[in-house]
Amino acid sequence: MKKVQESAEKIQTMQIRGAGRIAKAAAEAIKDYAERLEVESLEEFNEKIKTVSQILISTRPTAVSLPNAVKVSTRHSSESLEKARAEVIENATLFIKNADLALERIGKIGARRIRDGDIIMTHCNSNAALAIITKAFEEGKSIKVFATESRPRKQGLLTLKHLNAFGIPTTLIVDSAVRNYMKEVDRVIVGADAIAANGALVNKIGTSQLALAAYEARKNFMVAAETYKFSPNTIIGNPIEIEERAASEVIEPELLEKLPYVSVKNPAFDFTPAEYIDMLITDVGILPPAMAYTVIKEYLGWELGEI
Ligand code: RI2
Is 7 in the pocket of ligand 1 (CB under 6 A)? Predict the structure, then answer.
C-alpha cells in the first residue's frame, strides 16, 4: 500500500505529471501492490485491488490514460488467487512495456510528417509530441521549435530543457504570443490527455487557442496520442471532466485575500473540436479524428456493457 499511496500523492501534487507518465506510474503501483499483497482468498484480492484502483483513479479526473491503465492492468479472468495475482502483475508489466513501445512508434510515424527546415510550435510538455520532434531531429532534419510557457505551472520550461538537451533550437514564448508567431510556424504538434469518441481533444489549457490560430493561418495541427488516451466512456455520452485546480497556482493567496470582489478560475485543460485537428498520430498509425470511435472499439477492445 505504501507505493500506491506515494504514487497517488505524487500524481495528485503533479510531481508525476503528463498523461502518459501518470498512467505508467499507476500501472507500476498496481504491479507492486499485487506482488506484495498478503491475502487469503480471491474475493479479498479482488476487493483490495478495487480499492487501490479507486485511490489511483481519483487522483486526477481528466487524463483518461489513468483509468485506462488501471483497467488494463487489473482485469483478470482467473478463478484462483495466485493465478489472478500473476495475471495482474503480467498485465501491468505489459502495459508499461507497451506504453514505451507506443511512444517509440509515435515518434517514428510522426517524424515522417516533419520536413527538413520545419518550424514547429508545441504547447505544455508532452512526451508523445516530443518523441516526434526529437525523432525528426535525430533523423537529420533541421528543425526549430516555438515552445509556449504554459501557464500557470509552466510545463513549457520542461519542454525547453528536453529540447535543449538534444541541441534543438527552441524559442520560448508566452501563451498569449501564440497567434503572433503562428505565421512563422509550419505545423503545431501537441499531446493529449484524452480524445473523445467524436474526435475532440482534451489537452492542456490553451491548446484550443493554438488550434484556432493554426486553423486561421492554414497550418497543420497534429495531435500525438497513444491509443490508451482515447476515452471509451464518451461513447455512451459521459463527458470528460475538466480538472479545476487551485487558485494559488494563478495568484498569490495573500493578494487574493485582499481582493474580496475577485474570484479565480483555473481549469487545467480545454477542448479542441475535431474540425480543428488535421491528424491524430497514434501508435497504430496516422488517423483522422473521425476515426476515434474505431480506435476505441478496435484497439481498446471494450464493449459498451463493460464501460
Ligand atoms: P504526454 C499533460 O498534462 C499535458 O496536457 C500534455 O499535453 C499531456 O499531459 C500529455 O502528455 P499535465 O499532467 O502523455 O501536465 O504526451 O496536466 O507526456
Answer: no
Cβ pair 274, 290 in contact under 8 A: yes
- What whole-number distance in Å separates Cα of residue 144 and Cα of residue 95? 33
d(CA 11, CA 4): 10
Q: Which tens digits make up the pLDDT trace of 88-131?
A: 999 999 999 999 999 999 999 999 999 999 999 999 999 999 99
Q: Mind listing the pLDDT tens digit for each residue in 30-80? A: 999 999 999 999 999 999 999 999 999 999 999 999 999 999 999 999 999
pTM for the complete prediction?
A: 0.96
Atom of ligand 1 nearest to the CA of 23: 14
Q: What is the DSSP letter of 189?
A: E
**To test ligand 1's pocket by mutation, which of 103, 157, 193 has the most ligand atoms within 8 angstroms of CB?**
193
Cell 505551472 found at: 153
Q: What is the pLDDT confidence band of residue 304, given thresholds at 50, 70 and 90? A: low
CATH, domain range 108-306: 3.40.50.10470
3-class SS letters over 107-169? HHHHHCCCCCCCEEEECCCCHHHHHHHHHHHHCCCCCEEEEECCCCCCCHHHHHHHHHHHCCC
Which amino acid would we find at residue 242? I
Atom index in ligand 1 nearest the CA of residue 19 equals 14
**CATH topology for the 2-105 domain:** Four Helix Bundle (Hemerythrin (Met), subunit A) (1.20.120)
Q: Where are the domains of the chain?
A: 2-105, 108-306
C-alpha cell at 239: 463527458
Backbone φ and ψ of 285, nearest 5°: 125, 180
Say if ligand 1 is within 6 A of residue 204 CB.
yes
**Which ligand 1 atom minimizes the distance to the CA of 153?**
15
Question: What spacing in Å lies between the alpha carbon of 120 and ligand 1's midpoint?
Answer: 18
CB 217 within 8 A of CB 182: yes
Residue 33 CA from chain centroid, whole number: 24
